[in-house]
Amino acid sequence: MVKESKPRNLTALHSKSHMPENSFFFERAIPIFLVVLGLVMLGLILFAAGVLIGVVRF
Amino acid sequence: MSFNQFLPFVSTAIMLIFSIYVFQRYSVRHGRHFLFWGIGLSMFGLGSFAEAFLSITWNKWIFFIWYLFGAALNAGWIGHGTLYLLSRKKWVHVLTALLALGSVYAAYLMVQTMPRLDEAAFTTSRPISEQYGTKVLEAGQAAPAGALTAQETYRGAQVTVTRGVLPLGAAVRLTTPFFNIYGLLTLVGGALYSSFLFWRKRVLPNRVIGNVLIAAGALSIGFASTLTRLGNGQFLYLGELIAAILMFSGFMTAGRPQPEEVVSSAKVPAPAQ
What we know:
Chain A is mainly alpha-helical.
């Protein structure tokens, strides 16, 4: 029984600490989120830089 | 008090709990990143509180707190914590010294500005973020509804301005973009970078999601602040509340303990949790 339960526990640990395979969320949604958030960050940095050099007035 | 004015009080409460939680982590684990996050989050909380206070009544020292901690410094300090997490190289200490010196200098400039605040331009009917700065009106440009205007001499020319609490050309305002750009790069960039590393390795999905939430939270307040500067200040309090909720939930998600065996074998830098 002990020998059988150990691999099963390791599998459970592995599944919790690894991304689920063939997951739409991790395979598609997360990369899109990362790209979109990166672009928004870039836009806000450019805006702030524009304020700094006087191109954007507020 | 309107519903919108109530929101900063909720944000303040969330940030208070968040800050205490991070300082507790620092007292146990002593990571410098926890210290800087705790300081930055406390600044964020102070800024939210000051904003809530200024939606009810005026106090110039609360305005001091709002501008220095809420508008200028907090993003830089939180982001610097993320930098400490991602890199333990010596140049980070140099940046720490620069951040500290820059913060003291910004505080000095703010103190210098205090006697010149235009308290008469303040009203509780608009968010402080919409009315703190005196702005030059371009030829043909109409002043926003309810804004006070005045004639001033600026850089040798006679200009029409919409009056704000801070005087025209206040030097402290020039420091704010530096802190905010640095904060955006380190906090958002650091969270996205960490998330990407874990995603690429296909490990620790909680840290992938947690860092995306942190980045989204930080961007929501940046986005709301930008909208405010473009004349749409009604979204600011909501943006702050969303930021507080997303960043706190992201931090909790990323910090959730994971199975030891796998954590120890994951050869990726520590996350911006």
